[in-house]
């Protein structure tokens, strides 16, 4: 009998290596740059031709560069020494064109050779000096991470994720998050550094409900709170390129193309164009592309830069503190046009209501506060259309603009309304549980109003005191004479019938406390998950109690029926109370007819 041979491995390590390195967009960008350089293509994109060749040429603040370098070097050290001390994921978030991925490439060129171990390099790359392995959307993300684990030792590389899978598909997004959680919880040590770059932006929508990935492309909506709060993940937030750095790099591009600008008669007006681009956008690629378009045109052309995407807190901050770039009317007009996904959100007015007191350290006149609260109330009562929200924005901004700033303002927080909604749902389930116990065990009917006003607090409080007395009574009865135990138990039935696993002993809705502030945006996915988990637990507990109560009720009804059947049916003896003789006397008498009645009267009778 011939035994079947086990299937052989279809892919070797070298094939895996070629597959990983062939899909990297960094390779395409570098090839494009090499083609532009070799062909001396003056018509090529300037942001490719003059891309940073050294770390010092990257448009990034020194402090931000220091933070990224420190975290990435810690991750490389952990991989080199085979330990699990440092973070496993470096998350870099910010708007487009703020040098997120560029700084990773340049840091990898300097740091990876220092920590790449000596030995035979089994995973060979098509490109020499390849220090970054990047994921692209066409690949399976989970398989990519499985293969990326071997990028350590002599094959050490930085794993970069910039092209995300189709996270707009719920199942794909869930699989993406689970793969990242598996990476964070892997028992292996010495994993290569995994860097995720997310370009955050607000997606256009007239009336978004909540903060979901369909309306807000942010780290919170993509990854979820469980990943973001993990101790093995470090997040660094990037801001748009500031005007000083932007002007510096745009002037360098102009110097490189001085002859072209002079030939087109643009050299004398370059400074005004650079100032205009630096004030309009923080995206360096967009600014360089606009500068090239303006410089290569023979006539003056309008500058159309990419608009900066504002976060929820940034939009709230503009209403509270204003803008230095333009007046309030122009700023609000721009917000209503460019930030509809935030402005039209249900939580925007709540954010203004809960954060207006942060202006000037809370030192605001009472008259201004009354106007702000009234305007928000009127806007809320008028509806959710954009005109009603714009009315609240202009009214709040006009009141806060009159406040003299003498104290420092604090950081805004996310509205606590989402927590209150969750607590309301939990309170409703708890009330149903309490009402079931009162009905099936104590034969008491409780209305919803009575539960909210009285029994939610005092009912569990009374039963908690009785439970303490029940424990004492049980101990007392156990030490009594057996002949006296039943008598004492019968006198305290109302106390001894209490059952801690069925009766509610703590306040419905939990203890009285304040709702804590939330500094991060709470997305739809996180809110749904938290609400679903908590409600499921409460409903399971309620249903379990109800099943026990119904079982106890059926047992009691059965016992009562058995007692009734056990009693014999006996004819009751009629007592002679003197009425029977009178009844017999009246029944023997004949009715007397009044002869004065006529025949018609008798017929009527």
UniProtKB/TrEMBL annotation:
Gene Ontology molecular function, alphabetical: ATP binding; chromatin binding; DNA clamp loader activity
The entry's keywords: ATP-binding, Cell cycle, DNA damage, Nucleotide-binding, Nucleus
Top-level taxon of origin: Eukaryota
Region Disordered, residue ranges: 556-605
GO biological process: DNA damage checkpoint signaling; DNA repair; mitotic DNA replication checkpoint signaling
Localization annotation: Nucleus
Domain Checkpoint protein RAD24-like helical bundle: 307-423
Protein name per the record: Cell cycle checkpoint protein rad17
């Amino acid at each position: 009998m011939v035994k079947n041979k086990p299937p052989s491995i279809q892919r070797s390590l070298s094939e895996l290596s070629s597959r990983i390195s062939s899909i990297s967009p960094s390779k395409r960008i570098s090839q494009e740059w090499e083609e532009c350089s070799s062909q001396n293509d003056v018509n090529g994109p300037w942001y490719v031709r003059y891309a940073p060749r050294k770390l010092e040429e990257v448009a990034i603040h020194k402090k931000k560069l220091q933070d990224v370098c420190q975290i990435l070097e810690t991750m490389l050290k952990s991989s080199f020494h085979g330990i699990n001390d440092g973070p496993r994921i470096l998350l870099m978030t910010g708007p487009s064109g703020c040098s997120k991925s560029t700084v990773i490439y340049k840091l990898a060129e300097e740091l990876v050779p220092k920590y790449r171990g000596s030995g035979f390099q089994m995973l060979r790359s098509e490109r020499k000096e390849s220090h970054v392995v990047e994921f692209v959307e066409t690949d399976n993300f989970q398989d990519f991470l499985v293969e990326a684990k071997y990028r350590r030792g002599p094959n050490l590389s930085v794993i970069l994720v910039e092209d995300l899978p189709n996270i707009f598909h719920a199942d794909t997004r869930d699989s993406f998050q689970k793969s990242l959680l598996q990476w964070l919880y892997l028992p292996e040590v010495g994993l290569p550094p995994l860097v995720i770059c997310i370009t955050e932006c607000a997606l256009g929508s007239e009336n978004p409900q909540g903060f979901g990935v369909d309306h807000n492309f942010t780290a919170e909506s993509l990854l979820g709170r469980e990943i973001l709060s993990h101790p093995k993940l470090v997040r660094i937030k990037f801001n748009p390129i500031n005007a000083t750095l932007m002007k510096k790099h745009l002037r360098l591009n102009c110097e490189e193309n001085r002859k072209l600008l002079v030939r087109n008669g643009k050299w004398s007006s370059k400074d005004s164009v650079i100032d205009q681009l630096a004030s309009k956008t923080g995206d360096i690629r967009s600014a360089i592309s606009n500068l090239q378009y303006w410089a290569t045109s023979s006539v003056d052309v309008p500058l159309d830069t990419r608009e900066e995407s504002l976060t929820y807190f940034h939009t709230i901050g503009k209403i509270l503190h204003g803008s230095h770039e333009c007046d309030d009317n122009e700023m609000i007009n721009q917000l209503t046009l460019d930030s509809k996904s935030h402005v039209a959100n249900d939580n925007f007015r709540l954010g203004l209501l809960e954060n207006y007191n942060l202006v000037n350290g809370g030192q605001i006149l009472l008259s201004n506060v009354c106007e702000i609260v009234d305007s928000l109330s009127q806007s809320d009562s008028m509806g959710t259309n954009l005109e009603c929200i714009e009315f609240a924005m202009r009214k709040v901004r006009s009141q806060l603009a009159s406040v003299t700033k003498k104290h420092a303002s604090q950081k805004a927080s996310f509205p606590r309304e989402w927590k209150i909604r969750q607590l309301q749902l939990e309170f409703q389930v708890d009330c149903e549980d309490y009402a079931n116990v009162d009905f099936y065990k104590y034969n008491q009917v409780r209305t919803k109003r009575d539960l909210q006003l009285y029994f939610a607090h005092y009912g569990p409080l009374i039963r908690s005191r009785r439970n303490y007395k029940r424990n004492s009574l049980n101990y007392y009865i156990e030490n009594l004479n057996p002949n006296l135990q039943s008598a004492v138990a019968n006198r305290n039935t109302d106390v001894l019938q209490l059952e801690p696993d069925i009766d509610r002993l703590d306040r419905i809705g939990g203890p009285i406390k304040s709702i804590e502030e939330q500094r991060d945006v709470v997305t739809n996915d996180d809110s749904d998950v938290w609400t679903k988990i908590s409600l499921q637990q409460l409903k399971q507990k309620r249903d379990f109690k109800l099943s026990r109560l119904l079982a106890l009720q059926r047992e009691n009804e059965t016992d009562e029926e058995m007692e009734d059947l056990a009693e014999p049916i006996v004819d009751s003896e009629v007592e002679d109370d003197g009425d029977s003789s009178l009844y017999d006397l009246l029944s023997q008498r004949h009715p007397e007819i009044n002869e004065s009645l006529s025949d018609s009267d008798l017929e009527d009778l």
